[in-house]
Amino acid sequence: MIFFRLALMSFALLTFSGARDQSPTPSKQNYPAVIKDSTERRAKAEREWRRMLDAYGVPQTPPDLYPITYTPRSLLGVSGGIKLTENATNSSTDSLSLRGALRGFIFRWREMIGADPSSLSLAGDDPSGSSLRFIYKQANYTLPIAAPSGEMVAVVSSDGKLLQLDDRLIPVVELPARPTIDKDTAAKRLVGRVFTYTDIAGREQRTNITAVGELNVKQLVILPVEKADSIEVHIAWEIAAGTSLSWTVYIDAITGEELRVAQNFQT
Fold this sequence. Notes:
five-stranded antiparallel beta sheet
C-alpha cells in the first residue's frame, strides 16, 4: 500500500511538471499587445483640450474623442475653427505657410494629439476648395500601420484656420520582432475561403478562393483591433483575395488567426 501511494505521488509530480513545461512562452502570453482603457488618459486628454481652446480664445465645448486612445475625432462644437496664424494667405495653394502653422500647432499640443511630432510623416497635402487637407502617418513603429489607424487628418483653411482634426494615432507598444507565420503559409490559409456579398439587385452572391494564384500578399502591417474596453495590437499579413472582385484580409502573423476582412468594391 505504501509503495502504491509513493508511485501515485511520483506520477502526479511528473504530470504536473510536464504540464508546466508545456505552458506558453512569455512572448506568446503577452501577445497581442493590449492598450487598455484609462481614466487617467481620458482626464489628460480633456485637460489638454480645455487648455488648447483657452489658448486660442475659443469658447469651451466638450471634446469629441475616440474611445480608449482619447485622441480628437473632430472639432465638433468649435464654431469657425481654430486660427493657427495671424498671417492670412490669399490662396489655398500656399501650402508651405499653412504646413508650418499646422506643424507649430502639432508641436505645441503634442500631449493632446498623442504623438511626438518627430514620429509623424506628412503623406499628403491635398487642396480642397479654399482649404488644404493634410494627412500625417505615424512612423514610430517598425512596420506600417493598417489604415485608417495610425493616421491624422487636419483640414486648414487658406486664412490659417484649423477646421477639422481626425486623429487616429495609437500609443507605441512592444511587439514580436518577426512573424512566426510566413506569407506563403498565411496565403494558403485562405484557399477555399468563401466570401459573400450582395449585388445591386439585393441578392446574395458567393465567391470562392480556389487557388493561391487568386491571392496577393501585399505587406506585413501593424493592425489595431478595437475591443469593448481595449485595443489589441497585432502583427498581420495584408492579403488581397480575389481577382475581378477582391477583399482585403488580415491574417495574424503570429497565430494565423483571421483578424479582419474588408470588401474592396461597392454594390
